[in-house]
Amino acid sequence: MQKPSIPKGTRDFSPIEMSKRNYIFNTIREAFHLFGFQQIETPAMENLSTLMGKYGDEGDKLLFKILNSGNYLSGVDQNELSEGATNKLATKLCEKGLRYDLTVPFARYVVMNRNDITFPFRRYQIQPVWRADRPQRGRYREFYQCDADVIGSDSLLNEVELIQLMDDVYQRLNIRVAIKMNNRKILSGIAEIIGEPDKIVDITVAIDKLDKIGLENVNIELASKGISNEAISLLQPIILLEGHNFEKLSVLKNVLRTSEIGRKGVEELEYILRKIDLLKLHCELDVDLTLARGLNYYTGAIFEVKALDVEIGSITGGGRYDNLTGVFGLPGVSGVGISFGADRIFDVLNQLDLYPQDSLLTTQILFVNFGEKEEEYCLPIISELRKAGIRVEMYPEAAKMKKQLGYADTKKIPYTAIVGENEIKERKIMLKNMQTGEQKLMNIEQIIVSLH
After folding, report:
1. Any idea what the Cα angle at residue 304 is, between residues 183 and 59, rounded to 5°?
2. What pTM, to 2 d.p., does this model score?
3. Per mean pLDDT, which range of 5-9, 134-138, 162-166 is the poorest?
4. Do residues 136 and 183 share a domain?
C-alpha cells in the first residue's frame, strides 16, 4: 500500500504550529483594524480569463489550472492533442485556475462591486494563494498572503499610512526590520537619462549586487548586458549613492534634472519622507535604488521589508499601481497596497523564538480523572472556569495518574487540578504547578484570580 503524502511545496501544520500562525494572523489583523481597513474574501479559484496576462509570461506559467469537470476533452480537436500545444490546450481544457495573488482578484472585486463601494476603499484580505513554483527554503506552492490596499485615491498620505502600518506590525511581532523604499518613476528616469529605457531590469539587478561583488564587477556585468560605456559612466553617481535619505534624494535630483518622470519620482519620495519625519518610526526606512519589484506592475512608490536578524527574502512588499482595474474595464483607479508574507514571518519568528508564551493558547489546566464521582464534582467547576475565560480540559478516562500527568507534560499544560475525596469534602481543588511541582488547595475564585 502506498504511503500517504502531500504535494511538494505544501505543508501540514500541527496544533502548536497553528497557534503560532494564528498569533501572526491575529497580530496583523489587529493592526489592519487599527488603521481602518475592512476585511473581504474572494474565492480560491477564479476564471482563468481573470488571471491570465496579469503577471507577465512567467506568472502565466506558474498558474495552477483546474481541469473542466465532466468530459473536459469534448471541445478539443484531436490534432491539437497530438501536437501537444500545451498553452493552447490549457485554455480549452481549463476555464478556472487557483488564484496567484490577492491583488488581481481584488481588482476584479472592485470592478464588479464598484456601485456598492465607498471610495477610497481600504480593504484587507488574509487568504492562501497558489503558485506552481519550484519549492525551496522560504518559497512554497501554497502560502498565505495578508494584504492591505487603499484604492480610489492618488494621495501619498496612503503611502505614509502603509509605512506606519508595516512599522506597527513588526513592532508588535518584536522583529527588527528595515523598510526599503524606491519609486518606479525614478527607475524610469534613470533608464531615460542614460539612454537605455529597455534595460532597467538588467541595471537594477546588477546594482543590487554592489555589496557582494564590488563596483568593478557591477560595471562588467552592466557591459555584458549590452549597456554602453557612456551609459555606465552616467550610472556611477547612482550606483555609489550613499548618505541618509535626503542626501540621496538631493544627488538624484541633480542626476535626474533633465528627466521629468525621474524628478516626479524624487518629489514623491521627498513628500513621503517629510511626513514620516513628523512621526516616530521604530524601524529603519531606507531609500534603496536597487529595489525594483515587479516592474510591469507598479507605477510609483515601491516597498520591501527585510528582517535584520535572519537570512531570508523580503517578508513584506508592495507599492503604488495606477491602473490595475483598467484591465477589467474600469480605467484610472489608482491604488497602493502591501502584502505581509505570513509563511516567511512564521519562519523568522521560529528561528528567533519570539512567540510570547501566552500567545500559544494551549490548555491552562488539566483536570485529572479519578472516576465517576470525581467527574461529577469537577464538570460544573470546569464549566465555571471556562465561563471566566480559563482554558480547561478533563482527561476523558480514569487512567493511571502517571499517564494523565504525562499527557499534561507532553501538551505543555502548566497546571493540573487534582480532586479526590478530601477535596470534595472541603469543596476545594488541589492545583499543581507542573513546572515547580508546587501544590495549593484553592477554591474556584482563587483559581480564576491566580490564572488571570
Report:
1. 90
2. 0.87
3. 134-138
4. yes
